[in-house]
Structure formats: structure tokens, C-alpha cells
Design goal:
five-stranded antiparallel beta sheet, SH3 type barrels, 3 domains, alpha+beta, 8 strands, 314 residues, 54% helix, Alpha-Beta Plaits
Length: 314
């Protein structure tokens, strides 16, 4: 009985709103066509990718606002009928659309609090990448990592619902302080001159890392928004003993997108310099065996062989 009443009221609502529906569909089609023409003009005349993307997003939001402003007054005339239908289906809508509603709230949160912006490198719910698009219900990343080393792009585009930012932790590589600390472990043998090796690594790191004053300026800017403070921004080399040798770890600042490139340049310089220094050798996992009284045992074996030879000769 309740289902029949609900269907009857729904059919009456649709019949009474047929002109509003027709007007809304035509209006959406016309605005969509205008939006397509504007975007085509932008694509043909704006060469800069970033500016082109911003204009396209502005066109999308503007068309949405215009559509909403023109359609709402028409539908508000039948607001009482709409409330009647809404009262019968509120529970079902709340269950069916809860993810979409949460994603829309997430979109509002993204533009209000700015946890990330277009171009930021973030990690959320185990996925990491560069943000390339933000929409009403989802945002998109160019994936990094996974089967690719050193935070390089995999080429895959990952779409994540906006509601994830309300329930998952977000790590932002570039917000505020647009630099990260990177470390390069260099293992040398125990017989190497580790003090000389440490000096060489420190010199290479200083040559390849960014200017300290520039990094200091970036930190001062970030400190206006976040409680960020580093007493020392210069590269440093830490010393530690491992099973296979002396571990020297280079720690330096670099841009997130340049981590692999900077690491590759530093390693090339290390290999070139170490090849010219005699008392420095790179180490690798090894095992050493010590045999007690091995010389005495070798002597016994030799005497036994001579003795056997004499007996055979006699």
C-alpha cells in the first residue's frame, strides 16, 4: 500500500513538473555546448598547460553556477511537492547517496582548508602521486612508486574519492616547505680510510645540494603557516658500523620531484672520485672464515704423502 502511494505521488510529481524537466534539460544542453566551445577556444589559444588547466576549471565551475542559478527558481515553485516526495524517500536517499554526499563535503574541505593543491605530491591511503585534477566527487593523481624506484612516475592515473580525505591520513611532500630530506647510504670496507671518504662525500653533497640561503628562505616562508624549524640546513654525513663495513650516510635537502636525479648525480660523482683514491673501497656483504693451525695441518698432510711415497719405493 505504501509502495503504491509512493509511486502514485512520484508519477504525479513528474507529470506536474514536465515543463520544468524539459526546460532544465534544454538549459543543461545549451550551457554544456557553450562550455565545450569555450574549452575548445582555450585549448587552441592557450599554450601554457597550467594556465589552460585553470581556465578550464574556471569554465566548469562558472557553468555549474549559472546552471544552478537558472534552474533553481523554476523548481522552487513546486517546492511543496518536492518536500512531500522528499519526506517519503529521505531514508533511502541518505543510504544510497552517503558516499557522494561525503565526497562533496570532502571537495568543500579541499577548497576550504587546502590540504593539497594542483601539482602537489601527496600520499593518501597507501597511494602516492602528483595531484593533476580536483573534481566535485574525486581527485586524480599521477602515481609514483609502486614497481618504480625512487618516487618516479609509473604513468598510471589514479582516481580517489574525495571522502578519503575525511577518514585517511594525508602526507604532503610539497605544501608549505617544498623540500624533503633525502639520505644516501654508502658502505665502505673496514680497511678503507673512512675519514677521507667522509670528507669526499660531504664535499660532493655540498656541491650538488641547493643553496643553503635559498632553502632558509623557503623555511622562513613555511614557518609563517606551520611550526617548522631546522637549525642546520647544510648536508651532513653520518657514520655507523655495520657487519660488512663502515656505513657513511649522506643527508641533504632536495625537491621531491628531483630526488632520483640528485641521487643519481651524487652517486656518479662518488664512483668517479673513489676510483681515483687507493685507500677507499666500496663494501658488499662478505663472510670470513678463520681455520686454526692451518699451517700445521698442511705440514702433516705433506709428511704423510712423503711417507707413503717412500713405502711404495721400498
Amino acid at each position: 500500500m505504501l509502495e503504491e502511494t509512493w509511486l502514485q505521488e512520484l508519477s504525479e510529481l513528474l507529470y506536474n513538473s514536465r515543463y520544468q524537466l524539459l526546460y532544465s534539460v534544454l538549459l543543461i544542453l545549451i550551457i554544456s555546448l557553450l562550455k565545450w566551445l569555450v574549452n575548445k577556444f582555450i585549448n587552441n589559444n592557450v599554450k601554457d598547460i597550467t594556465i589552460r588547466y585553470k581556465w578550464r576549471k574556471m569554465t566548469t565551475y562558472l557553468s555549474f553556477i549559472i546552471t544552478l542559478a537558472l534552474i533553481l527558481p523554476i523548481w522552487l515553485k513546486g517546492f511543496k511537492s518536492f518536500l512531500t516526495y522528499l519526506g517519503l524517500s529521505t531514508a533511502g536517499l541518505a543510504i544510497a547517496l552517503r558516499d557522494l554526499i561525503a565526497s562533496f563535503i570532502g571537495w568543500v574541505f579541499i577548497f576550504w582548508r587546502r590540504p593539497f593543491s594542483i601539482g602537489d605530491r601527496i600520499e593518501i591511503d597507501g597511494m602516492a602521486g602528483d595531484v593533476i585534477d580536483i573534481r566535485l566527487f574525486q581527485f586524480s593523481l599521477i602515481e609514483i612508486g609502486n614497481w618504480v624506484d625512487a618516487d618516479q612516475s609509473t604513468g598510471r592515473v589514479v582516481h580517489i574519492p574525495n571522502n578519503k580525505i575525511l577518514s585517511c591520513d594525508i602526507s604532503n611532500y610539497t605544501a608549505g616547505f617544498s623540500l624533503i630530506w633525502n639520505e644516501i647510504p654508502v658502505l665502505i670496507t673496514f680497511e678503507s680510510d673512512w675519514e677521507r671518504a667522509k670528507e669526499i662525500l660531504l664535499s660532493i653533497a655540498r656541491e650538488e645540494s641547493d643553496d643553503v640561503e635559498v632553502n632558509r628562505t623557503k623555511i622562513d616562508q613555511a614557518a609563517k603557516k606551520f611550526l617548522i624549524y631546522y637549525g642546520n640546513l647544510e648536508p651532513i654525513v653520518y657514520t655507523r658500523v655495520r657487519e660488512s663495513g663502515v656505513l657513511l650516510t649522506i643527508r641533504y635537502l632536495c625537491e621531491p620531484q628531483q630526488r632520483r636525479n640528485s641521487e643519481g648525480v651524487i652517486w656518479e660523482n662518488i664512483l668517479k672520485v673513489f676510483s681515483q683514491v687507493e685507500r677507499i673501497e666500496l663494501a658488499y656483504p662478505t663472510q670470513r672464515f678463520y681455520l686454526k693451525n692451518i699451517k700445521e695441518r698442511q705440514g702433516i698432510e705433506i709428511n704423510d704423502k712423503y711417507r707413503e711415497g717412500d713405502e711404495n719405493g721400498n
